[in-house]
User: Which sequence fits this backbone?
């Protein structure tokens, strides 16, 4: 009775919440039981944010424990590194190649770890994408979240149309074009 | 039809289906989205009240008058609404009366980790605790029925993981419930001593009936898997336990957490060799079990701190280790929340820090003024305390101390309970300076309107509280409105007011940078004129950081608010489109 566990990590304000909602809704259209655990409140103000999407025949706990994430979708390098203990043995990380300095690094109280991608690639399967450039290409840098959903979608059995249909029902009309473009750029990116 | 809903949205759906007429709340994470979700139902009157006590009284009024009603708050909000709640336990419910309270184990967005179940016991009411969105909807409907059946206000207790997890919910139609007749009933509704003495007798009798109900209701259910180990749980812990222990143990899931049954627990314990109570925060169920003579294992193996996880439960109960995991072999810097790029509060705290003032703080985004590098805030207690605690500080340490002391409080928080502290200062001859951080919205909880914004929860235009006139009306003769991004002038104003031998208010006015109406353009860049004095670094802006010894502005983070251009002594930061 195992579930498929996806963990989305990033920095408050990057749009991880919308990403997890698109994911959750795409999964239910495929007939699975699903739970999506979100983060609201203070950490949305530039802190580390973690959301979980779990699906399967029956999902009990909405959270993902250490060593249990099949896929980690990381919106930022340091957050990818932080989430590493949650990755299942043989799991996959999809990482947005972007560095956002946390306040302890800005104030000089801590160092931003060097060569995160190299270190991660030595211990797990990673795909690195420049979602920021793709979002810019789609027309809005805020569409980083949907680009990443596109990359992730390619790694699931859920059909393309299910994803685009879900985006159509989840995203406000006026941002739809940009988001569909962003999704395609992610979906068709080299992995 | 099944829909993926947040626990909070499912409570709102339950209230809608149960024919609720009035919902009044004050925002507070993790409860806010319940009331926000009510907005989609035009059949319900919904409002943001100035504070939780007012909200509770509004819904009590609705219940007395015959209309089903609900008020929602976070755990600390329940402290504010406690006064009417304890007495309405005596009055009971004419139409169904529900208080939904969301606890925050792990303190994702709170100042303490209190366990609200104690309130149900202390007020001798009834409390239900759902474990997922489907139960959130179902239990909310049950809560209204039980409230009317037993003439009792009913609590629904949520926790962050239930409130903020989405799961599937079967949607049903709304049941139109007729208004209950309103009849004047002094003996029941006027809680003066002679009446309350009689009502108390009924409250105790009702409590016995509720215990009897707890023994038989399907809200408390036993799942017998023929295991030797028994587990008593409620809420989210039931989900964690099922994930961790599967069918290896027997379960007693308590959907009703107050009053608790006796016989049912004893019968369950008799089925098992060993019984664990798995509950986050306080040993509420555990103490009850022990009081009725049932030996259970609880807080001797489970912590009273923070949230639980399935792996923690698996280890404690079955002795099984959790899944293998890989860790980085170096320290990973933490990423605490920060004031956003463009946040109006940054200008205020920059000045307060520069002047070396003691800052009596409050609850909101601006609590982050205590974080590095600004570290300006000295105290944070509860909503409104910035004003009244500063009054106490000044009275204890005298005028000289007071000249280096200010209170900071947001617009919504000021209306919530800062105004009463300000009246205290005026009335009792304080000379404090209070800074109202007017960012035109309730920020931290995610942009709710409030009495100072001129809009209702439905976005309709309404009378707007005029903060200047309000402060003047309570006796503040010196009220100054200043833009915190004009740091020079703001500093001048603060200096003037703290040295004044009279109480004063500064309204630091600039809207939240995340509001759609705020359209900063372009971004800022460091030019060659930079002397590396690092003055801009003192702002603690997430967009400005050091690269080697050079200052750099991350254009993906910068929103072009321009505050840094105002603090650079060499004019070395320029705005670009």
Assistant:
């Amino acid at each position: 009775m195992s579930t498929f566990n996806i963990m989305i990590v990033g920095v408050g304000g990057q749009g991880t919440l919308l990403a997890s909602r698109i994911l959750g809704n795409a999964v239910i259209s495929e007939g699975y039981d699903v739970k999506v655990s979100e983060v609201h409140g203070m950490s949305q103000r530039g802190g580390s944010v973690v959301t979980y999407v779990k699906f399967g025949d029956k999902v009990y706990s909405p959270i993902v424990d250490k060593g249990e994430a099949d896929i980690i979708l990381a919106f930022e390098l340091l957050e990818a590194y932080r989430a590493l203990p949650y990755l299942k043995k043989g799991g996959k990380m999809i990482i947005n190649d972007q560095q956002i300095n946390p306040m302890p690094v800005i104030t000089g109280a801590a160092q931003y770890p060097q060569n995160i991608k190299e270190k991660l690639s030595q211990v797990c399967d990673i795909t690195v994408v420049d979602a920021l450039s793709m979002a810019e290409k789609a027309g809005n840098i805020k569409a980083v979240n949907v680009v990443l959903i596109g990359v992730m979608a390619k790694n699931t059995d859920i059909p393309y149309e299910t994803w685009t249909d879900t985006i159509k029902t989840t995203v406000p009309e006026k941002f739809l074009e940009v988001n569909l473009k962003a999704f395609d750029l992610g979906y068709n990116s080299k992995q | 039809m099944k829909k993926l809903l947040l626990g909070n949205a499912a409570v709102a759906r339950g209230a809608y289906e149960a024919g609720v007429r009035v919902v009044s709340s004050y925002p507070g994470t993790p409860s806010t989205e319940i009331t926000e979700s009510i907005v989609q139902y035009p059949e319900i009157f919904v409002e943001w009240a100035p504070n939780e006590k007012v909200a509770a009284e509004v819904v009590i009024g609705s219940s007395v008058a015959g209309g089903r009603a609900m008020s929602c708050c976070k755990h600390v909000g329940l402290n504010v609404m406690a006064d009417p709640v304890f007495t309405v336990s005596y009055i009971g419910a004419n139409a169904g009366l529900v208080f939904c309270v969301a606890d925050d184990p792990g303190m994702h967005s709170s100042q303490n980790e209190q366990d609200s179940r104690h309130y149900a016991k202390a007020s001798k009411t009834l409390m239900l605790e759902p474990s997922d969105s489907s139960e959130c909807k179902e239990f909310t409907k049950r809560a209204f029925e039980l409230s009317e059946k037993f003439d009792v206000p009913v609590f629904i207790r949520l926790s962050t993981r239930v409130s903020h997890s989405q799961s599937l919910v079967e949607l049903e139609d709304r049941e139109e419930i007729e208004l209950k007749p309103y009849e004047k009933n002094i003996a029941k509704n006027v809680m003066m001593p002679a009446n309350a003495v009689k009502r108390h007798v009924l409250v105790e009798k009702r409590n016995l009936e509720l215990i009897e109900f707890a023994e038989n209701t399907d809200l408390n259910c036993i799942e017998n898997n023929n295991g030797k180990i028994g587990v008593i749980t409620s809420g989210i812990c039931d989900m964690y336990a099922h994930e961790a222990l599967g069918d290896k143990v027997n379960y007693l899931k308590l959907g009703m957490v107050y009053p608790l049954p006796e016989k049912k627990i004893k019968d369950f314990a008799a089925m098992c060799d060993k019984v664990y109570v798995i509950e986050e925060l306080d040993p509420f169920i555990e103490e009850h079990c022990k009081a009725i003579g049932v030996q259970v294992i609880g807080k001797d193996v489970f912590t009273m701190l923070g949230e639980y996880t399935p792996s923690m439960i698996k280890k404690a109960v079955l002795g099984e280790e959790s899944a293998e995991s890989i860790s980085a072999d170096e320290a990973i810097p933490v990423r605490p929340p920060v004031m956003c790029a463009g946040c109006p509060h940054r200008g205020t705290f920059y000045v307060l820090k520069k002047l070396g003032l003691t800052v009596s703080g409050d609850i909101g985004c601006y609590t982050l003024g205590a974080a590095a590098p600004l570290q300006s805030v000295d105290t944070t207690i509860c909503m409104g305390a910035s004003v009244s605690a500063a009054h106490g500080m000044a009275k204890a340490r005298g005028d000289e101390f007071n000249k280096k002391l200010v209170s900071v409080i947001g617009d919504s928080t000021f209306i919530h309970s800062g105004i009463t502290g300000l009246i205290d200062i005026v009335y009792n001859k304080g000379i404090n300076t209070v800074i109202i951080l007017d960012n035109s919205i309730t920020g931290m909880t995610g942009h709710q309107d409030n009495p100072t914004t001129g809009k209702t929860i439905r976005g309709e235009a309404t009378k707007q509280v005029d903060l200047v006139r309000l402060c003047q009306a309570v006796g503040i003769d010196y009220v100054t409105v200043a833009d915190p991004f004009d740091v020079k002038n703001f500093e001048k104003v603060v200096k003037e007011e703290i040295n004044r031998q009279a109480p004063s208010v500064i309204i630091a006015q600039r809207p939240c940078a995340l509001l759609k109406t705020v359209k900063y353009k372009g971004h800022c860049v460091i030019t060659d004129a930079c002397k590396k004095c690092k003055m801009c670094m003192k702002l603690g802006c997430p967009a400005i950081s050091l690269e080697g010894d050079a200052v750099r502005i991350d254009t993906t983070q910068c929103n072009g608010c321009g505050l840094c251009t105002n603090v650079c002594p060499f004019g070395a930061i320029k705005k670009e489109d």
Q: What stands out?
A: Chain B touches chain A through 61 residues (CB under 8 Å). Chain B has a mean pLDDT of 97.
